[in-house]
Structure formats: C-alpha cells, structure tokens
Amino acid sequence: MRIIDLEGQQAVDFLVYDAANHENRYNAANTIKINRSVYVGKGFKLVSDLGEVLMTVVEDTVGHHDTIGGCCSTEVNHMRYGINGTPSCRNNFTTALRAHGMDPRDIPANINFFMNVPVRADGSTEIVDGLSEPGDYVDLRAERDVLVVISNCPQQFNPCSGWNPTPVRIIEWHPSRGR
C-alpha cells in the first residue's frame, strides 16, 4: 500500500492487525526493539505483539516517522488546549474498529506517518512541524494478510498536520492483481 501526503505536513495515524487474529497487532515497543530506532523509515519492520512481522516499509521519501507520540484524543486535546469536543484519531480508530468487532481496548500505541516528534538529548519530546512535502509517500508491503486502520489526523491545535488538516491518498495493490 502507498500512503501519499498530498499537501505536506499531514500526520497519518496508522494501526495494523493480523487479519486472522486481531489480538496479534502492531506493537510499538517490539518494533522499536527489533529495528533499534524510534523513527520509522525504509526497511523498517512493523512487528506484532507475538514478535511477527506484519508489514515492511519498502519505500519512503521522508525517512522519519513517529512511533511514540500516539494518537490524539478528545480527552487529551481538552487537557492540552482546554477545548471540548475536538475531532480525534482515537475517535476515528474506534469508529473504524467497530466494523470489525473491536472496541477502544483494541487500540495499541500507533505509528504516525509524516509526524515529527524529535527526542532531545535530555529525553524531552514535543510535536513539531512535519518534514513531509507535497507528494511525499510511504510504501508498505504486507507480510501476511492484515487489517490496516488509518486516521487522517484531524488535529488543528498542534503542528502535526501543519495546523490545517489536509487530504491524503491511499493506494492499495495486490501482487496477484498488479499495481
């Protein structure tokens, strides 16, 4: 699959599950340990709770995507910005997962493609301007049948989406069917 940031600086929150066993899902800690980096880039393996590779990043025009910032939520947005009722990736994930018999407990820590969360020498972090430009993309290869859940981040109150959420494009292809 290809995720394209059409206008630049648009965070795309991403979850992946084994299609045959939704309890075997993306695990941020295992992924960081196996790849020895908190930043996703080309060649990165997305590892599950059971230590299985679910997907591999095969092409990447940015080379720096977040594994630690997690998804925004209405509740945390209220804590951070004092604003009630904001749209959020957590709500988007919850809605998408219900169609597959899952609920909020099935949302693990996620990857944020195109989001920039630097870790400083003192261990501090913050969400800063994204590094992606219009047309940047990430290509992922499924290593088994997977369920992918994506939230095009609706966050307006920090730079994860350039302060202005914009559209992305998702292209899915199957090797047996071609691109």
Task: Describe this protein's structure.
The structure is a single chain. With 179 residues, the protein is of the alpha+beta class. Helices cover 15% and strands 29% of the residues. It has 3 helices and 11 strands; from the N terminus they run E-E-E-H-E-E-E-E-H-H-E-E-E-E. The protein starts with a strand and ends in an 8-residue tail after the last strand. The mean pLDDT is 95.
Task: Provide a short characterization of the protein structure.
This protein has helices spanning 28-35, 74-81, 89-98; strands at 2-5, 12-18, 21-25, 39-40, 45-47, 53-60, 65-66, 111-113, 136-142, 146-152, 168-171. The protein is an alpha+beta fold. The longest helix has 10 residues, at 89-98.
Q: Give the DSSP E fraction (strand runs of 2 or more residues).
A: 25-35%
Q: Helicity level, as a percent range?
A: 10-25%
Uncertain runs are none
Q: Note the run of SSEs as H and E.
A: EEEHEEEEHHEEEE
Mean pLDDT: 95
Shape: globular
In this structure, how is the largest beta sheet organized? 5 strands, antiparallel
Q: Count of helices? A: 3
Strand arrangement within the widest β-sheet reads: 5-6-9-1-11
Distance between the termini: 9 Å
SSE topology:
Layout: E1 2-5, E2 12-18, E3 21-25, H1 28-35, E4 39-40, E5 45-47, E6 53-60, E7 65-66, H2 74-81, H3 89-98, E8 111-113, E9 136-142, E10 146-152, E11 168-171
